[in-house]
Specification:
single chain; alpha/beta; Rossmann fold; six-stranded parallel beta sheet; elongated
Length: 290
């Protein structure tokens, strides 16, 4: 295995952030995206375009929108390989799927790819694209321990804290648990800032006090000022978190706070805020005050 070569499939916010960090740390990064021009900034930084990272790399990071998209893209790339000289070179490859997706589909993909001799790890990342770019995120990994250990040089590039949490699908479950708490923390902060203003308390002062109190969460550092400034430049899109919340609710568990959170996110999306940063949820809460 060429330890320093890595493929990246999907160049959204997280795919771009991971690729930039890998380039900064000396990896030979081969990128692919359905819209090729999105790769141009990375090519300028030294990445190479790959027509098929499955053929070019032994380890491939995947960062796409949903598990359905992952299945579709990988099926396309594998079909290309099966009519090419690379058909016998699939065995031993490692797929590192950082998509926040369905635990059931992650487990099924592991079984499917194993039939080709491919190792599949679900490895969603907890953190914004900016935190990932700085190496501050957390990574949860599910899959074979041997495949996980074969990527030991890679994990520090993706996050400060890395957890192997069990078989494939386990990390996808853990990511939904993490996103439940993270999303509710963000919604609670937004509501608190709106409440402060309604009580005649300066929200700037309220945020300062909250940061030094037992109510503190890291969301206050990452999203608090963005909410105050109405700076909704994208670190993580609101609609993408709504997608995750719907996955959480699809588990069938009774989650009253998450159900309310989902309604707020749907309201924000209806207001045209879906493509903005998820801190824009404060606008939906402000609208409830009118």
């Amino acid at each position: 295995m060429e330890k320093r070569r890595i493929g990246v499939i999907g160049l959204g916010l997280m795919g771009m952030a991971m690729s930039e960090r890998l380039l900064q740390h000396g990896f030979d990064v081969r990128v692919w995206n359905r819209t090729r021009q999105k790769a141009d900034p990375l090519l300028d930084l030294g990445a190479s375009w790959s027509e098929n990272p499955l053929a070019d790399c032994d380890r491939i990071i995947i960062s796409l929108y949903t598990s359905d998209v992952v299945e579709s893209v990988l099926a396309r790339l594998m079909n290309e390989m099966q009519v090419s000289p690379f058909v016998d070179k699939l065995r031993g490859k490692i797929l590192i799927d950082t998509t926040t997706g369905s635990p059931e589909q992650s487990a099924a993909m592991c079984v499917h790819f194993a039939s080709f001799g491919i190792h599949y790890l679900d490895a969603p990342i907890s953190g914004s694209s900016e935190q990932t770019r700085r190496g501050e995120a957390a990574v949860m990994v599910g899959g074979e321990r041997s495949a996980f250990e074969a990527c030991n040089d890679l994990w520090p590039m993706l996050g400060a804290n890395v957890y192997h949490v069990g078989t494939s699908g386990s990390a996808a479950k853990m990511k939904l648990i993490s996103n439940l708490v993270l999303g509710l923390n963000r919604a609670a902060l937004a509501e608190a800032l709106v409440f402060a203003q309604s009580m005649g308390v300066d929200p700037v002062s309220a945020l300062e006090v909250l940061r030094g109190s037992m109510a503190y969460s890291r969301v206050m550092d990452v999203k608090g000022q963005k909410m105050l400034d109405e700076d909704f430049s994208v670190q993580a899109r609101l609609s993408q978190h709504l997608k995750d919340v719907r996955l959480i609710l699809a588990s069938g568990a009774t989650l009253p706070l998450t159900e309310t959170h989902c309604q707020l996110l749907e309201q924000a999306e209806a207001m045209g805020l879906g493509e903005l940063d998820n801190s824009a949820i404060i606008k939906a809460i402000q609208q409830c005050q009118r």
